Amino acid sequence: MSEVNRGSRIGGWTRFVTARPRLSLLVALVITALAVFAGSGVGDRMGSGGWEDPAASSTYATQALEREFPASQPNLLLLVDAGGKGVDDPAVAAEAGRLTERLAAEKGVVGVGSYWQTRAPALRAEDGGEALIAARIVGEEKEAGETLERIAPEFRGTQGLLEVSVGGPVAVRHEMQTTIQEDLLRAELIALPVTLVLLVMVFGSAIAALLPLGIGIVAILGTNAVLRGITEITDVSVFAQNLTTALGLGLAVDYALFIVRRFREELAEGADVRDAVGTTLRTAGRTVLFSALTVAVSLAAMMVFPQYFLRSFAYAGIAVVLLAAAAALILLPAALMLLGHRVNSLDLRRLFGGGRRKPAIADSSAAEAGGGWGRTAVLVMRRAPLFAVATATGLVLLGLPFLGVKFGTADDRQLPSSAEARVVQEDIRSGFPGSPGGGLEVLGEGGATSAEYADYRERVAALPDVLRVDGPVVSGDHAYFTVLPRGEAVDQRTQRLVGELRAEPAAFDTSVTGTAAVLVDSKDAIADRLPLAAGIIVVVTLLLVFLLTGSVLIPIQAVALNALSLTAMFGAVVWVFQDGHLSGLLGFTSTGDIETTLPVLMFCVAFGLSMDYGVFLISRIKEEYDRGGDHERSVIFGLQRTGGLITAAAVILAVVMVAIGTSRVTNTKMLGLGIALAVVMDAMVVRSLLVPAVMKLTGRATWWAPGPLRRFHDRFGVSEGDSPPAAGTDSAEAAGESDGAASGAGERDKVRV
Questions:
Q1: Do the Cβ atoms of 622 and 719 come closer than 8 Å?
Q2: Distance CA 458, CA 456 (A)
Q3: Is residue 729 within 8 Å of residue 629, measured between CB atoms?
Q4: DSSP 176
Q5: DSSP letters of 361-418?
Q6: In the predicted model, is pLDDT for residue 738 greater than 80?
């Protein structure tokens, strides 16, 4: 051990955690049981929307139209198939009339209209075999979903001469919510046993393998309870449940792996159980705390965006990260106190002829003695310029497809092709005239004369991207026009038309809504707040890594390399999900664009997870550097001690994310598979190749900091190691010293690169 009494100086936190381990675990069990009760049914209280900016002009117009003209904003569509008779057959018309009257009599349904009432061409299929009944279900998402559940069975299926299918936006949202909940349960059933098997392979011991899984379950159940409480205050997206499961398992595994591995190392070095727990908390525990803070900051940055879809991931992410860290720093040490050396029990590798487990690496010279990760570090650092340039170039090339990204909005094609709501929308899209769902509504307020309305209509109709203008429909001081664009619902022409309509002068106040208008406003809201979110992530990350390392260069390297590690993810998202490659294999329909909020979400989550692994590696390098003062040997030691750990954690998290990626909803599939790729690339490429290559190139200047910052770190910073920095490693001198220098005992074990 580096110090004789290194494990005996147990601080107040360690005494608190280890004083009554049985009581700690009992309290945790009670709290977890209460969380199960408190979080039950949370999915039913979540929404499936949240992509729009609530303060945007389009949102205001939508709400005003819902209030003043309910029929202008139908969210329920009944697709009526008349069979071989045709929709204009008198018997079909009579049956459809009775069906329309029944729908209008339902509680919570307003603005009912049908082709048979209005004879509107847009409500009749071009072949005359189908027609639509449109209505609006009033209320917020949850209330509207409950109304749909109540009335849909009464109208779906055979209705006399008619065959009826239920669709419309409210049906799409409800089916998406139901599908996500079903897929999440399946993902958990896949991820939990696979994770347990991988943990057994990593630890060998079945007892040790169960600890991370238990921490993950506690974090997930606790987060569900937190989200259940948040739904009482504000809207929460159902998509956030996926992040809860993925991060709950993934981060719990990360933190528990790191702590249990360090605990087992201390036991192997001869420490007693209490001292081993104390040293583990002072070293690995600090790293876990810093890691949790960096991940939480990355996720908290989504709070600056107005869309509740993004804010929901911040709620879920912050809760699950903090709960996973708290469980790892409180419950796990208590369990280790009770288990002691039994943490290595039930070594399942003996069943396969593996014999007795080899003892943990007991001294830092093991980095020189061998090991795949140590040899990898030596190889990379010998050819540092080649590995740095080749790896960075490869990552940039993988990210090039993202330069062609096109942003759109989620629609029914997110659902599997067999979903009823999607089938209805597909029939409308392909068989009905015009551009269903692509129309723009212009709300007029303040009152005007018929001549003023007519003049405005003529000028709008003359715009080059306008196909037709319907209206106005007037009610008191309010009116609205429906503008059908020449382009598709959200293509660039239609988005440009939104700006033209908003700029068109009128004798009354106007505001524009519709799918393209919502998309334009959502893009603007994200663009306005993206610099703030990025600034929060970068500044806080730089500060936290500086407090951990005392270096100016390492935080900058961490941020830059983390961002670079995400390029493959963004390139793959465009190449696969926007351009449609592998769509048949993965089972989704490409819409030719990416939902606007998804890249922001994926960046925040993947950046936080990359920092998680980065902190693990950097902290161990810093610990060895403080002990011996040899820069290159410290990098090799850090990769030797954490390379396998980080890779195992990344593989397990990737498995969880791939399980999430089996979802039948495209956005969830994109989130799961994209982050799985980012995690694997970060652990196996950036941490294994790029980080040691860059640290070799920067040499001992890596640890430099100006005098004022060095004194600030001496006062407020922390490090994982217990030993003070080795003599002769003052940051101000480090930049000018040879990389071959070492001090004390480190000279004997120095690794030549």
A1: yes
A2: 5
A3: yes
A4: H
A5: P-STTHHHH--HHHHHHHHHHHTHHHHHHHHHHHHHHHHGGGGG--EE---GGGS-TT
A6: no
